């Protein structure tokens, strides 16, 4: 994997940086693990925009990822690594010994031909999935379940990882990339290693059109609007009118704690300090 700076043959290429991984599969995804992904334009079933800045973009198909890794004791061979347009991380196509194929989030260092396995007696090896009970304290893991058998919820994007800090009773303490420390049940599963494609955040798309190809529409600054359209709008020159940054609906947006889930507060040992 390498970072390539494109030749400035056009204004869009001048600042473009792309990550090149020659190990990625060049063809179509495995057809049996692909479903259609309809466009929403950010609208709900009533046709109202519920998520702004979404629209257009290239057609995509959703790859069905095995987040549960529940085929215990059956060795799987990595057939190939693939690009997934639905996430920042790369994915790996697994061929199990019984003939079944599944996709998984590819960890850093995994390559075609490697073997992975899941279960409580799996070896401590990159790509293997096992309960936190059986993982040595201090290990780096990803794709962690929040509830046993619930499927991976934490640390799934490119380059992310979580460190297992301690175990006490039925709970294990983990430290997230944000700095938050929280408890999860020690029966929850995790995958050894960190997520692949850590260079993802170094990419520079180079032109606005590349963002539109990904289905992202422009974001207009509130200060560039009229007072009727945004609380920051209006006034002479670039000014917010003296008020703190807010959303178009008046919700504070910087440093304001938005967490309201009191039920799970007891599991958070130390907050990240970002929005609660």
Written account of the structure:
There is one protein chain. With 276 residues, the protein is mainly β. It is built from two helices and 17 strands. Strand 14 and strand 15 form a beta hairpin. 22% of the residues are buried. The mean pLDDT is 93.
Radius of gyration: 22 Å
The SSE string, one letter per element, is EHEEEEEEEEEEEEEEEHE
Give the termini separation. 36 Å
Structural class: mainly beta
Task: Kindly estimate the percentage of residues that lie in beta strands according to DSSP.
Answer: 25-35%
What's the helical proportion of residues?
under 10%
Order of strands, widest sheet: 9-16-10-13-14-15-17
**Main beta sheet:** 7 strands, antiparallel
Number of helices: 2
Query: In terms of quaternary structure, what is this?
Result: single chain
What's the arrangement of secondary structure elements?
Layout lengths: L1 E4 L5 H4 L2 E4 L13 E3 L24 E3 L12 E7 L8 E6 L4 E5 L9 E2 L12 E3 L8 E3 L1 E2 L6 E3 L7 E7 L2 E5 L5 E5 L3 E4 L15 H6 L54 E3 L6
Antiparallel strand pairs: 1-2, 3-4, 5-6, 5-8, 6-7, 9-16, 10-13, 10-16, 11-12, 13-14, 14-15, 15-17
Quick structural summary:
Helices cover 4% and strands 25% of the residues. The chain is built from 2 helices and 17 strands.
Task: Describe this protein with a few key phrases.
single chain, 276 residues, mainly beta, seven-stranded antiparallel sheet, four-stranded antiparallel sheet, 17 strands, 4% helix
């Amino acid at each position: 994997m390498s970072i390539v700076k494109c030749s400035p043959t056009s204004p869009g290429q001048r600042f473009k940086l792309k990550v090149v991984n020659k190990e990625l599969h060049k063809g179509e995804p495995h057809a049996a693990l692909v479903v259609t992904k309809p466009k929403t334009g950010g609208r709900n079933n009533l046709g109202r925009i519920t998520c702004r800045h979404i629209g257009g973009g290239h057609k995509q198909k959703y790859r069905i990822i095995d987040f549960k890794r529940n085929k215990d004791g059956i060795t799987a061979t990595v057939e190939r690594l693939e690009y997934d347009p639905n996430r920042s991380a790369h994915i790996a196509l697994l061929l199990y010994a019984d003939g079944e194929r599944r996709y998984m989030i590819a960890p850093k260092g995994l390559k075609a031909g490697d073997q992975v396995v899941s279960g409580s007696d799996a070896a401590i090896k990159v790509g293997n999935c096992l309960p936190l009970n059986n993982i040595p304290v201090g290990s780096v893991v990803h794709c962690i379940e929040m509830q046993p058998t619930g499927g991976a919820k934490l640390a799934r994007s490119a380059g992310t990882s979580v460190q297992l800090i301690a175990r006490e009773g039925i709970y294990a303490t983990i430290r997230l990339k944000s700095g938050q420390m929280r408890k999860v049940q020690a029966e929850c599963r995790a995958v050894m290693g960190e997520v692949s494609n850590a260079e993802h955040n170094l990419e520079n798309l180079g032109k606005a059109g590349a963002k539109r190809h990904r289905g992202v529409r422009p974001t207009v600054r509130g200060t560039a609007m009229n007072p009727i359209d945004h609380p920051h709008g209006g006034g002479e020159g670039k000014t917010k009118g003296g008020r703190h940054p807010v959303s178009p609906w008046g919700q504070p947006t910087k440093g304001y704690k938005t967490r309201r889930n009191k039920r799970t507060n007891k599991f958070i040992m130390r907050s990240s300090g970002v929005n609660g």
